[in-house]
Amino acid sequence: MKEDKLIIFDTTLRDGEQSPGASMTKEEKVRIAKALEKMRVDVIEAGFPIASIGDFEAVQAVARAVRDSTICGLARALDKDIDRAGEALRGANASRIHTFIATSPIHMERKLRMTPDQVVEQAVHAVKRARQYTGDVEFSAEDAGRSELDFLCRVFEAVIEAGATTLNVPDTVGYAMPHQYGELIRQLRERIPNSDKAIFSVHCHNDLGLAVANSLSAVINGARQVECTINGLGERAGNASLEEVVMAVRTRADVFSCVTGLDTTQIVTCSKLVSNITGFPVQPNKAIVGANAFAHESGIHQDGVLKHRETYEIMRAEDVGWIQNRMVLGKHSGRNAFRSRLEELGINFETEEELNAAFASFKALADKKHEIFDEDLQALVTNQGMAAENERIKLVSLRVCSETGEIPCASVVLSFDGEERSVSAEGGGPVDASFRAIDSIVGSGTELLLYSVNNITTGTDSQGEVTVRLERGGHIVNGQGSDTDIVIASAKSYINALNKILMPSDREHPQGEV
Ligand code: KIV
Ligand code: ZN
Questions:
Q1: Which residue from 57, 131, 389, 506 could staple onto 163, CB 3.0 to 4.6 Å apart?
Q2: Number of Cβ within a 10 Å radius of residue 513
């Protein structure tokens, strides 16, 4: 039997970035896009170009850097959005415009304040306009999961007629149940007269923990594109996780009559990269990419796996890329070896100065930690990028005291807007004391929502990677920092978060007010 192709549409850089605090810089987006291209993702949604100049430039940079995947830009069903997306995608080898408008009664009445007829008219107009830029146009009926079937059929038939090549059926609020959602896809395919002229796509949110289940149910019922994100990142509870969808389709080939074209051995690398860049750690028991996903704790399981692997393992760890932690570079490695390993990881420096600065940090790290792994290099480059872009607050030095029976204290020297300031503070521990000292200089008025520490590799000489999440007036940011000394890593991540919160944001949310 001939198997269909299941198109994998990754939206880590767009919907993933809508996770509170997960915003990424242009360079970070290009790094992730290159990793997705290497994994052979079919379509990369690189962003929402109208949202801000930064978003526009990031989509443009991804469109120029990636050759093998189609690059997609999101646009509301508005001329100005579509024109901006078309412009941002101009340098792409293969481009797609993804335009959307809400179709559920509640969204049409309360958010758009439009009649159903107006919505159909605007959707058709938007698709026709997008076709002026590219032959690959996706139309999404936002909140399709709560839309009326007859109306969805009407909108989709009209947009296919207008030139849409992919029809996306988003469960925007994560409300659907797998059997209902699968049935919705089946009904749409059966009832829309020209349904064979377009690919049906799904985009599920995880509010009830059903995003992957809903997506797979849709695939069984004929959807041939799944929109997903690395590590399930995304608005609120996130989107369907790419790694889970892809490995379910591959592992249960008996259930799905389609295949993806992905190189699954790149999954763990992509997961670590996204986690490292966004500062969203992966929970240890997360399917496929969690640290425990292939670890067998109980004696019975270990015994079974040793006798015959398939007794307890349905997938092979190496098939998803769990063979990392190879020592790649060390203290004696030279600049060329450093540069070429980074290039293999998809990291290129724009200037020799940037390379030199990163190489100096690498040498400093290699003095403290003899074996340098790919994960260390990724963290180092992330740190470097952050330092270059967020210059308002810089850590000059930090000294802490931690002794049994004594009150922990920290002395910090910061450069704040170019002026060097030093202060000491006490706290519950050295990290707490450092944060108090830093904030007594900055006076940020922020609330600490999350503080978490992870080992980048293994061993007590491993770098600690710290994530700090701060909130001020509803604005949430994540900061990261890594160092072999976790108190310094903590201070770096706190400063990184403070730098982000001090930056003005002019960004529009795609699903906000039109
Ligand atoms: O969740 C959603 O409906 C979206 C659309 C823009 C596709 O993200
Ligand atoms: Zn979404």
A1: 131
A2: 7
